[in-house]
Amino acid sequence: MLSYWKDEDGLTTVEYALLLALIVVVAITAWTALGSSVNTTVTDVNSHMP
């Protein structure tokens, strides 16, 4: 039982999974914000075209 508590392989896997989830959330948030900005710019340019 003591060896189970000293084994850190499972903990490392969970930490990597949480880090990956955080990176995905940040990437989606940045992509959404950037997409809105690009959409606004394209719409403005399109409205000024003859």
Percentage of β-strand residues: under 5%
Distance between the termini: 76 Å
Low-confidence stretches: none
Q: What order do the SSEs take from the amino end to the carboxyl end, as H and E?
A: HH
**Any idea what the shape is?**
rod-shaped
What is the percent of helical residues?
over 70%
Structural class, from helix and strand content? mainly alpha
The largest β sheet comes out as: none
Which SSEs are present, and which pair or pack?
Blueprint: H1 2-6, H2 9-48
List keywords for this structure.
2 helices; mainly alpha; 50 residues
General description of the model:
- The chain is mostly helical and 50 residues long.
- Helices cover 90% and strands 0% of the residues.
- The chain contains two helices and no strands.
- The mean pLDDT is 85.
Concise synopsis of the structure shown:
The protein is an all-alpha fold and 50 residues long.
